[in-house]
Design a protein that fits this description.
Blueprint lengths: L1 H25 L2 H29 L7 H23 L5 H16 L16 H35 L3 H4 L5 H34 L7 H23 L3 H26 L7
Helix pairs in contact: 1-2, 1-4, 2-3, 3-4, 3-5, 5-7, 5-9, 7-8, 7-9, 8-9
Length: about 270
């Protein structure tokens, strides 16, 4: 059943991507609305599939690469649906939907069997730590693409290029505001994720901090966004500086989330 639900959600994400691509080409609002509601339907099915896996496995299904990519894509979808409803940034769907679809296709390439939970993960801290951490990563994930759009619009205005596309994009002020919202929402989630992870590490390994590769890179990510928020509030960082820092922070997240798990190993190598 879990595989059926997962494949069904993948199909809906594909339909949403196709609809958003048509919207990008023909600029008809109908296709964007169809893409949005199909994406919401895929999100609901995806959410049901994760709950089904949770009840079938008996633990929070964020314990391997397949489950991690699946849950991260769910969080990204949820935050995009929220931003789309609040800020009406329709064009963002043309970027986010294919990325979500490709993330799930990639997840499908990893083993998806439900296995007994490793003893080290058998803790009530598992859902708390992972949900907060993945939610923060998903919000910064969106911030990364908002930053790319900001730089695209800013360059287009200066060089007077791509006027037809730039006219369909939000203003620089709106994009900068959304970036700030991503910082404001993502940083607390990331902070709670690190704190709960440290408490969990103390109970599991007898130490709050072991300088494990994932812990170290998580700290680097936290410091990057802390510097960004501090400089925005104290010396007024805006625009391009914020966009570049958001992009740098996102690449650090990629190293933390994928690079460490796939290459570095360490105490988190069970993923």
């Amino acid at each position: 059943m879990n595989v059926i639900l997962f494949n069904l959600s993948l199909f809906f994400y594909l339909l949403s991507t196709a609809s958003y691509m048509i919207f990008l080409v023909v600029n008809k609002a109908l296709f964007e609305k169809v893409g949005y509601y199909v994406l919401f339907s895929g999100f609901c099915i995806h959410l049901i599939s994760i709950f089904w896996r949770y009840f079938h496995a008996g633990y929070t299904p964020i314990t391997n690469i397949y489950e991690s990519l699946s849950f991260l894509s769910l969080c990204v979808t949820a935050f995009f649906l929220y931003l789309r409803r609040i800020y009406r940034i329709e064009i963002l769907g043309c970027i986010i939907t294919p990325v979500i679809f490709l993330m799930l296709v990639w997840a499908f390439s990893f083993p998806s069997d439900i296995k007994p939970l490793p003893p080290i993960l058998d803790s009530y801290w598992l859902p708390i730590h992972t949900v907060f951490s993945f939610s923060g990563n998903a919000i910064f994930f969106i911030g990364f693409f908002i930053s790319l759009i900001y730089l695209f619009v800013e360059r287009g205005i200066k060089k007077k290029r791509f006027p037809s596309i730039s006219a369909r994009l939000p203003s620089l002020e709106t994009l900068d505001l959304i970036n700030y919202r991503c910082m404001s929402y993502g940083f607390p989630f990331l902070t709670v994720g690190i704190i709960t992870g440290s408490i969990w590490a103390s109970t599991a390994w007898g130490s709050y901090w072991s300088w494990d590769p994932k812990e170290t890179w998580s700290l680097i990510v936290w410091i990057t966004y802390a510097i960004l928020i501090h400089n925005r509030l104290t010396i007024g960082w805006r625009g391009k500086k914020t966009a570049y820092m958001m992009i740098i922070g996102f690449f650090f997240i990629l190293i933390t989330f994928l690079g460490v798990n796939l290459l570095a190993g360490g105490l988190h190598s069970y993923l």
